[in-house]
């Protein structure tokens, strides 16, 4: 299998963590999606990473589909749980993934500064969603888990990305228990080996 991905991308990182956690043989090819490379556009018409090419040449995207595919085919669904087994856990994963979306969109707003089209409205909206969502994860006790599952992996991707791209967003005071869990878990090799920055 071949994965088009990039080190700073939190979506790519989720897949790269799963690859390491499950000790899979995957060739990782560093890809800048904005280059619009032929291979990426052939695999994913959206022009986004991550994109996974299977051994028969077929391509899978997006990060959640790839992650669920690897979980079902190589981990007996231990990372996401059996389909329909725990809707609250599935919803928590969606919350974390939505917060990654907010953090990436906030970054895009910052990059629009150069074009002079940064929107204070959208900047504030993404920041508020991030703070509200992280507070909700704290309320749910998201860090209070006995094992590393897909939500734990996605949560590490989210929090490291926020620290990397939005260091002024002071989420720790809203989520002290999550912060404690994060400080401990982020040192595990699968996370340390894939940390952005
Ligand atoms: N929903 C997608 C989002 C992927 C995504 O937005 N990736 C970014 C890199 S972090 C990208 O490829 N951006 C280029 C673009 O959107 O044109 C997923 O979960 O994989």
Automatic annotation (TrEMBL):
Residues 1-78 form the GST N-terminal domain. This is Glutathione S-transferase N-terminal domain-containing protein. Transmembrane segments: none annotated. Coiled coil: none annotated.
